[in-house]
Design goal:
Helix content: 55-70%
Largest sheet: 2 strands, antiparallel
Low-confidence stretches: none
Strand content: 5-15%
Number of helices: 7
Mean pLDDT: 94
Shape: globular
Oligomer: single chain
Radius of gyration: 17 Å
Strand order of the largest sheet: 1-2
Order of helices and strands: HHHHHEEHH
Amino acid sequence: MSVDGAQLWTLNQRLLGVVMDACTGELAELGLETKEFSVLAEVEASPYPAEIATALLLPKASVTVYVRNLVAKGFIRREIDDADLRRHRLVLTAEGTEARDRALAALAAEYDRRLARITPRDRTELQRILQEMLSPA
């Protein structure tokens, strides 16, 4: 039986969408839209807006809007980059860290509800497969 990579990709995207949709209420309680959450969750790993756009496959203009919203909400702040005074890096505030952590907990709980449908052995195998797929070639 042949496995269609495009179909697997679509199923993965659909699962992520279902999990995210199930958490929109909790995100809204935190004052976050789903795309804002994605940006907020990426700030520590990618502290520059262009890096966030690349990592999340979002247009730079959209990231600019989300960053502006997150700054206005007090979740992140812009700081001058000491290595290049022309650049601003993004930093999570204490409120941003708390909102991110609470949102991640909500997403993890929903994902765990989905994982409960498969055996512990299959979960371990899924983790192994995903790690293998993410490892450098």
